[in-house]
Automatic annotation (TrEMBL), chains A, B:
This is Glutamate decarboxylase 1. Gene3D superfamilies: 3.90.1150.170, Type I PLP-dependent aspartate aminotransferase-like (Major domain) (3.40.640.10). It catalyses: L-glutamate + H(+) = 4-aminobutanoate + CO2. One of its GO terms (biological process) is gamma-aminobutyric acid biosynthetic process. Its cofactor is pyridoxal 5'-phosphate. One of its GO terms (molecular function) is pyridoxal phosphate binding. The gene is GAD1. The chain crosses the membrane at residues 130-149. It comes from Sparus aurata. Keywords: Decarboxylase, Lyase, Membrane, Neurotransmitter biosynthesis, Phosphoprotein, Pyridoxal phosphate, Transmembrane, Transmembrane helix. InterPro entries: PyrdxlP-dep_de-COase, PyrdxlP-dep_Trfase, PyrdxlP-dep_Trfase_major, Pyridoxal-P_BS. SUPFAM superfamilies: PLP-dependent transferases. Homodimer.
Length: 532, 532
């Protein structure tokens, strides 16, 4: 339908539309242009903005910020800066999802492993399709993403819908699902992504809960590690399972789930008449950075017909590293995966994806088919209206910053980022594992960048193991942290875990950190802690 | 504890710390400064950055963007641009929540009704407390907000925690709760805010559901208007109630709930043995912009001991207008209120607040007391660690942009914004109500800015009311919209509603729109629709 203008090489006729329509254009001029639009529409229905050849389009800039904001939350066209009418705005260009999508697939991921040639395209994000997505300035790109935030239908945010779709596919490919098949959505954080996974699992096994409520299901039980993130517990409370029906699994000394404990607890639950439905395996626990053995857990899930979710909010980023991705071996057997680029990959918060292996579940689980938003008689393929998959309505644009980073760094850039952080944490581990005054919380090199350790001030080093030592050691980390915060030089977190008294947890996710920063941290701990 | 340095007038001694610590400072220099920090700490534990007098601080600028990003997601101090260590960063200044909070209360809302004197403070957001929150450039403020996004504990985002707390209090005051008492949180959109309201209501009446699941409660039913937003339905599905237990209430011709229908359905549900628990009253429905009669609904809620939620996602903004806030009369009787500044008030998406009248419920409902985040032995009042109230963990900073806008426009600015939009919609209504070829979907001036109408091409005007006319009229709006999208001149949404075939719904939320924009819209509709 829009064939002619959509081809990037098509530099024909209607360049006039790329001229700026200034705010102070006379009404006559505006009217003339509008008439011209209409005549073209009547002739061939082939209208889009991106049909000048060469590099001309890259020189167009948007400099009037007030306009940018005033236009509302939908996509403006850089060819027009007329005064806004409403939200959505008066100024438009149009393409169909399918043709856009095809071009995107080619242009966006043509060289996914290495950084894109930003010298040419960094300042201007374009689709080779019917629209320019501004701009001449990095700050504007961020502002754009910041200011224009709603995604639930293709027509409101076509570029972002396509970006999300293609990026999710890429992520599913990296997870290891054939051809990147499946489904997914960006959500406002890992906790919500994990909540999605429980909802989807419930819909898969007991779809009638959607209409009839939990009363329609037997007593369902969920399983997760005692070291897992509290969001699984929050989900079990919120979704009506109840936290008592979330069964905590024992872990080994390193914080990894013991598969035999899972199987024993599944059998026990079944004997009680409960229905084991969902298992969360954590890839990168919050405190120890442990990776649960996904393959062994997947065996048990298959045996007992349970949903396997992998919470890779923290550890998912390691999938980008050829050196470290083996820690997630088996992730391709998961039914759903949480992966937060806003954690290990350094994308600014919020940017979290829930990936689902089976298509249709996300839609089936959440859709309510609100007629006022998701009309079925639209003039394009409404499968691109992704909003009804979400528990939200409008969604913040989280994809754009991630997509930009991916284009800028390439997959190889993320790999280097991650490898560097893990190298640094190994450096820290090796530096303190035999150093006087330090004790590691668990043995062996950490799987992730979490280095967990106690610092013992000299006054505690001679004490025998016992209650007094424990009590005094419990207070060391909070005191040092408070002094750090007061002095303003550094900060490192601490917490207890199970029987273990307060210990430091140093987590490295910033690749700009250096070995001398690590050295400095250790100096500071000793400086503050020496006299405690 | 930090008294000396916290007072803005205290321009004593330690100005040295405001000198830039450049990346290329020598190690010796760094060490010297750190030692100096520590000595001060040992002497009096009075350390903060904001202790130079006069306007000197306003001239300090941050120009190295790469630094700004490299520092991670925690708050940097403008006095230091050293290389980052980790997330959280090395560079800190510290205050206690209570003292900060006090100063904020005074400084932030000292003149809430009128715009702040930005000439002095626009470019630099400061707290009169121990930290500067940059910056010399509006874009940086946005970037800052965009890039540093995590809020779950005070220590990670003290300024944003306080901003959120005080802004929520202000919103509760405007709702009409005495002294702004109550609770609340910013969430990723109105759908999630509405979901919170259902969760909190359930926790209030059946707290045991949190641990035991929905099996612990009787069959609970919820009520909402047949015109309400679909998020209430999504919440009833997600939270385990089941959509069948959400009972839809009849509305009058204008789309407002008929209170007698609510009471009849409550009685009917009780007769069946169900437990009516929750009523949603919509303040500004999505399609008609109708305001349910809150006072009459509140009477019924009190009589039958049900939770009253007001979904003011769309209409909440009218509370800022002395002329229009009467449409929400009774809102102060609600147990909870959803209010999205990102809709009618023009704050960029996402910015949605759930306000709760009773303190403690939000925390009780959602807290899981994760020891690794919410340690109780921190050196400050952990009541400021708001994260455990949320179903999320880290949260995007949604408050900053809203706070900035409020400071810039003042309450009076929002009032003008809203009054102008409503004036414009009244202009549109008056223009078309008797115009040839137009039919209004409901009679009388719209309550909100939603103007709902049919356009009848000349070929339909002579047709008698009947199936043929309905069928043809149903196709008019989609066709005109498609032509608008193709021509790129304007766009206006349409939908059916109940028995009513597709009609246009013009919604105005952008105060930059003008009467001539409205005129243009009408021209365009007629231009495209004339020959259909």
């Amino acid at each position: 339908m829009y064939g002619k203008c959509n081809h990037p090489a098509d530099s024909s006729s209607s360049c006039k539309r790329l001229g700026f329509l200034q705010k102070n254009n006379s009404l006559e001029e505006r009217s003339r242009i509008v008439t011209s639009f209409k005549e073209r529409a009547a002739k061939n229905l082939q209208l889009s903005c991106d049909n000048v050849g060469g590099e001309a389009r890259f020189r167009r800039t948007e400099t009037d910020f007030s306009n940018l904001f005033a236009r509302g939350r939908s996509r403006p066209c850089s060819s027009c800066s007329r005064s806004p009418l409403t939200d959505p705005p008066r100024c438009w260009t149009s393409t169909t999802p399918t043709s856009s999508s095809r071009a995107w697939r080619a242009s966006t991921w043509s060289s996914p492993t290495s950084p894109s040639p930003w010298s040419r395209s960094w300042w201007t994000v374009r689709t080779k399709e019917g629209f320019l997505l501004l701009s001449s300035h990095l700050l504007l790109l961020f502002l754009f993403c910041f200011a224009f935030g709603s995604r639930f239908t293709y027509e409101i945010a076509p570029v972002f819908v396509l970006m999300e779709q293609l990026t999710l596919k890429k992520m599913r490919e990296i997870v290891g699902w054939p051809e990147g098949e499946g489904d997914g959505i960006f959500s406002p954080g890992g906790a919500i992504s994990n909540m999605y996974s429980v909802m989807i699992a419930r819909y898969k096994y007991f779809p009638e809960v959607k209409t009839k409520g939990m009363a329609a299901a037997p007593r369902l039980v969920l399983f997760t590690s005692e070291h897992s993130h509290y969001s699984i517990k929050k989900a079990s409370a919120a979704l009506g399972f109840g936290t008592e029906n979330l069964i905590l699994l024992k872990t080994d000394e390193r914080g990894r789930v013991i598969p035999a404990d899972l199987e024993a607890k599944v059998i026990e639950a079944k004997q009680k008449g409960y229905v084991p439905m969902f298992v969360n395996a954590t890839a990168g626990t919050t405190v120890y950075g442990a990776f649960d053995p996904i393959n062994e857990i997947a065996d048990i899930c298959e045996k007992y017909n349970m949903w396997l979710h992998v919470d890779g909010a923290w550890g998912g980023g390691l999938l980008m590293s050829r050196k470290h991705r083996h820690k997630l071996n088996g992730v391709e057997r998961a039914n759903s995966v949480t992966w937060n680029p806003h954690k290990m990959m350094g994308v600014p918060l919020q940017c979290s994806a829930i990936l689902v292996r089976e298509r249709g579940l996300l839609q089936g689980c959440n859709s309510m088919c609100a007629g006022y938003l998701f009309q079925q008689d639209k003039q394009y393929d409404v499968a691109y209206d992704t909003g009804d998959k979400a528990i939200q309505c409008g969604r913040h644009v989280d994809i754009f910053k991630f997509w930009l980073m991916w284009k800028a760094k390439g997959t190889v850039g993320f790999e280097q980022h991650i490898d560097k952080c893990l190298d640094l944490s190994a450096y820290l581990y090796n530096k303190i594992k035999n150093r006087e005054g330090y004790e590691m919380v668990f043995n062996g090199e950490p799987q992730h960048t979490n280095v967990c350790f106690w610092y013992l001030p000299p006054s505690l080093r001679g004490l025998p193991d016992g209650e007094e030592r424990r009590e005094r050691l419990h207070k060391v980390a909070p005191k040092i942290k408070a002094m750090m915060m007061e002095s303003g030089t550094t900060m490192v977190g601490y917490q207890p875990q199970g029987e273990k008294v307060n210990f430091f947890r140093m987590v490295i996710s910033n690749p700009a950190a250096t070995r001398s920063d690590i050295d400095f941290l250790i100096e500071e701990i000793e400086r503050f802690g020496n006299d405690l």
